[in-house]
Amino acid sequence: MPISSQQAAEHFSHMRPRLLAFARLQLRESAAAEDAVRETLLTAFEKTSSFEGRSEFETWVFGILKFKILDHLRQQKKQGRWQPLNDSIDEDTLDRLFKSNGHWQASARPHDWGEPEHILENQRFWQVFDACLIALPDSIARVFTLRELMGLSTQDICKELDITETNCWVILHRARLRLRACLDNGWTQ
């Protein structure tokens, strides 16, 4: 269903804080995040008439932001401000968490969080999740958000960040482990 310019402007004011938080998480620079959100809102406003209602309006705007973030990352790379990822595998951490057969060590086993449907509806869970995501090291957070929040394929992430596929999977694994540990501490305790 098409949306009017007036409705779009109202949505933008409510969306802006979430757009900015998402952009800061990915770009890790406030000025770059502000620029990406400003460009996103301008593009969305200019193209509001092309919104066909096949998705939620907010989802459509976040889609525009994802492309703006990728543009900013590419621009950083061209300008030489890009910090490549050089994340080596931490075997000691994996050994502390898992047995040789791949099962959890008894002391590292995650807590039971209850029913997923109820948890995902809980606003406190998402506040803790956001805090945990922001606390991730930049390189890990970047890969995780590109994959899980922006929906890029592993191949695209490797191309954008100039890393190997193996390194990408290791970083994603680390991100999930760290998020799980953080959520266990902040959510279940």
UniProtKB/TrEMBL annotation:
PANTHER family xref list: RNA POLYMERASE ECF-TYPE SIGMA FACTO, RNA POLYMERASE SIGMA FACTOR HI_1459-RELATED
InterPro entries reported in the protein's UniProt record: RNA_pol_sigma-24-rel, RNA_pol_sigma-70-like, RNA_pol_sigma-70_dom, RNA_pol_sigma70_r2, RNA_pol_sigma70_r4_t2, RNA_pol_sigma_r2, RNA_pol_sigma_r3/r4-like, WH-like_DNA-bd_sf
Gene3D superfamilies: 1.10.1740.10, Winged helix-like DNA-binding domain superfamily/Winged helix DNA-binding domain
A GO MF term: sigma factor activity
Record domain RNA polymerase sigma factor 70 region 4 type: where: 129-179
Domain of life: Bacteria
Domain RNA polymerase sigma-70 region: from-to ranges: 12-78
Family recorded in the similarity comment: Belongs to the sigma-70 factor family. ECF subfamily.
Descriptive protein name: RNA polymerase subunit sigma
Record-level GO BP terms: DNA-templated transcription initiation
Pfam families per the UniProt record, alphabetical: Sigma70_r2, Sigma70_r4_2
Lineage: Bacteria, Pseudomonadati, Pseudomonadota, Gammaproteobacteria, Oceanospirillales
Annotated keywords: DNA-binding, Sigma factor, Transcription, Transcription regulation
